[in-house]
Every structure is written in C-alpha cells, then in structure tokens.
Amino acid sequence: MVQPLGAPASGQKRTFDKRWVAILVSGCLLVGLIGFLVGVNRSSVTIRSCKAYAAPTQATATCDDGWAYAIPVANVKWRDAIGVWHEGGRPDCLPLGPQEVNALTFATVDVRVEGVGWRPVVWVSC
For burial by CB atoms within 10 Å, which of 2, 24, 27, 67 has the most? Predict the structure, then answer.
C-alpha cells in the first residue's frame, strides 16, 4: 500500500520523538556541566590599593570599603618593585615602622563559613 506524501509510516513518529527527547536531555546535561565548571573555576580574588600602617610585627590597611585588613608581615607571598615573586619574608614596601604607607596594593579572597565572613590577604605587591 502506498502512503500519501507527508504521512509518516507506522513507527516513524515514535523514533522522531525519541531523537528529540535524547537531543534535549543531552543539551540540558551539557548546559549543566558548563554551568558547574564556570562556578567551580570562578575566583573571588579582589585586588585592592589602600592606605596602610606598618609596624614591626604587623601591618593594617584601611580601605574605602570600610574594612580593615590585617597584612601578614612575615609569611605572605609578595612581588617586589621589579616584578619578582617571593614566597615569604617581609615585603620591601612594608617598613619596620611605625610608619604610614600611602598606597599598598594587595589581594584578598572572600571567605564565608557558617555565616561568618572575612577577607584574608593572600599577596602583596610593592
């Protein structure tokens, strides 16, 4: 028997529907995976440049955002004036003080645990 043009043979419609469902499910899984990877690899590092006060055992930077940041003076990664990275030691731009430092550039990360948040300093740039 000859089928009219445009009319699917029996079983053809069901195969077509299954293909579209498979394509939609695959697309949703792909979008979900991409969203997960973007969220996992997102950095919360913020570079700041603020006035600081250096003393022999500590340094504190006060920024326009209202936060005061404790700058580690002995155990922080830092970059010197010519761009060389150091794994620790006192950054060259933090004098033994007590002394004010006009503009100290440093990076913080946002941390939140059980509703408590803080912003530790992770590196200093001189």
Answer: 67
How far are the Cα atoms of 16, 49, 89, 99, 101 from residue 70, in angstroms, in the given order? Answer: 63, 14, 16, 15, 14
Q: Which residues face 89 on adjacent strands?
A: 75
56, 96 Cβ separation under 8 angstroms: yes
Helix (H) or strand (E) holding 62: strand 59-62
Kindly give the confidence (pLDDT) of every residue in the chain, 126 residues in length, as a single tens digit, with 9 standing for 90 and above: 555 565 555 555 566 676 766 666 565 555 555 555 555 555 688 899 999 999 998 899 999 888 999 998 888 899 998 999 999 888 988 888 788 888 899 999 988 889 898 899 999 998
Is the pTM here over 0.85, yes or no? no
- CA angle (28 as vertex; 25, 32 as ends), nearest 5: 140
As a whole number of angstroms, the distance between CA 100 and CA 82 comes to: 22
DSSP 1: -
